[in-house]
Design a protein that fits this description.
With 368 residues, the chain is mostly beta strands. Helix content is 1%, strand content 40%. It contains 1 helix and 29 strands. A 6-stranded antiparallel beta sheet has the order 1-2-4-29-28-27, with no helix packed on it. Strands 3-26-25-24-23 form a 5-stranded antiparallel beta sheet, with no helix packed on it. 45% of the residues are buried.
Length: 368
């Protein structure tokens, strides 16, 4: 069928909406930035190998189809793409940040920041600007649970959580364009791939929990533990990785350190275990999909059955409210979905990247 002029995807969506395919020929698409409903920019990671990524622009043609063009090529595992207060588009690769002027006749990249840690398990970056133009940058943990080579015994304290360039953290960067100053804003977040401001100005992040907890304690269920998390992040606080999971329960590797979770911040809301929450956004109060107004929308990427869907969270109560896109498991007619990032256009159409299937999708009102 057809959804808002696009080929329809056969999934369950919130009442009054449908989801269509904007593009299906992308190469591991990750971040998405709709500048309008006729122009959408997408970062494509390409692969886990370095310099296989690109930045693409999808432009709506007179025939109703979107056509892709390459803006940048040879990028190193690009993920985050955000619009700065200066009107420029900022793109985060694994090891650097560049910016581009979308209104320029010839779009060219200007390097803003280099030398970012680009190794380990979680090299991809997420970004968020505040009202002052300061940048918040997620810095994923280099390990799963601070294990050594060959899953050897861990040390205490975990070295990568320490110092002025700690990983498993969020960095705050001031004066980004003029002698940037970097500080660690918060620690103990294993892989905070979703960041957004709440209606009251609080920093809200998703965090992906550790793997293989049952290998350290067979009494613990790897299928059910640990929960992924939604956190309210405050400056100077520690959110527990790698010592704690769920409500400050000690990870098996740290049980001999009885006070390791003392003073750590508990999550604001549990998310399903191994659902892999990646993108998060606050749906605008004037967006065309009225049922989503004022809600956080979270893309559950998932490599388990808890993922491959989009959920809504009440932005005031921080409580799970509804499934926005579901029924996205593999069928005879179409493959399983893997939503990564989601972002609304100025009109409120919801654009979603699916890296497993190389697709950009759009959730719209069925009335269109």
């Amino acid at each position: 069928g057809v959804c808002d002029g696009l080929s329809k995807v056969n999934v369950k969506t919130i009442s009054g909406t449908c989801m269509g395919v904007v593009a299906s020929d992308l190469n591991v698409p990750r971040g998405v930035l709709p500048l309008s409903d006729t122009e959408v920019w997408v970062t494509e990671m390409g692969s886990c190998e370095k310099h296989r990524g690109r930045l693409s622009r999808l432009s709506l043609q007179a025939n109703g189809r979107f056509v892709r063009s390459t803006l940048l090529d040879g990028l190193d595992r690009p993920h985050a793409i955000v619009l700065g207060r200066d009107g420029w588009v900022y793109v985060a690769e694994a090891g650097r940040i560049v910016r581009l002027n979308p209104k320029a006749s010839t779009v060219a990249a200007e390097t803003v920041l280099t030398g970012l840690p680009d190794d380990g398990h979680h090299p991809l970056k997420q970004m968020l600007f505040d009202a002052n133009g300061d940048l918040y940058l997620s810095m994923g943990a280099k390990t799963d649970h601070c294990e050594g080579k060959g899953n050897a015994a861990v040390g205490f304290p975990c070295q990568e959580t320490l110092g002025e360039r700690a990983t498993a953290s969020i960095w705050k960067i001031t004066s980004l364009l003029n002698r940037p100053r970097i500080t660690v804003y918060a620690r103990g977040l294993r892989n905070a791939m979703g960041m957004v401001w709440s209606p009251t100005g609080a920093l809200i992040v998703t965090d992906n929990g550790r793997d293989s907890i049952s290998q350290a304690d067979k009494k613990l269920s790897d299928a059910k533990l640990p929960h992924d998390e939604l956190n309210v992040v405050k400056q100077g606080r520690d959110y527990g990785w790698p010592y704690c999971y769920d409500n400050n329960r000690l990870n098996p590797e740290y049980r001999m350190r009885s006070k390791a979770c003392a003073g750590k911040v508990k999550p604001a809301q549990f998310l399903p275990a191994h659902s892999a929450p990646l993108g998060i956004m606050l749906y605008p109060n004037d967006g065309e999909i009225k049922a989503l107004r004022g809600q956080f929308l979270i893309a559950l990427h998932g490599y388990r059955d808890t993922g491959h869907r989009v959920i809504g969270v009440n932005a005031e109560k921080m409580s799970l409210s509804r499934e926005v896109v579901g029924g996205w498991a593999a069928t005879d007619d179409q493959p399983m979905g893997a939503p990564v990032e989601l972002h609304a256009s100025p009109s409120g159409k919801l654009y979603i990247t699916d890296d497993r299937n190389g697709a950009l999708l759009r959730l719209s009102n069925t009335a269109h």
